[in-house]
Amino acid sequence: MLKPRHLTLLRGALQFFGEELLPHEPEVMRPYLDQDVDDEFTSSELQELQRFLSRVEVRYTGLDAADHECVQPQLSHSLDEVAASSEQVAVVLIPAER
Hints:
It is a single chain. By secondary structure, the protein is of the alpha+beta class. It contains 4 helices and 2 strands, in the order αααβαβ. It has a two-stranded antiparallel sheet with strand order 1-2. The longest helix is centred in the first third of the chain and has 18 residues, at about 5-20. It starts with a helix and ends with a strand.
């Protein structure tokens, strides 16, 4: 389950990917991708994703398992709280409160 600390790891991984792998031939990055991609990743594409991830926070909401409808009226900061009261948990990325 995605947690706030995981965003830090993702941001760092994207920076490493952009600095250390992107400048090389596409074959260098293939072992790190879990599926084939049709086009090579671009520097601007990575920067866009980094900017997006730097402006979001993680929240959680409960889902009904059958229809995947939200069962809680508000998003929560607490994964444990939502998991204890819901069949499934949805991760929501929202604009950061800054």
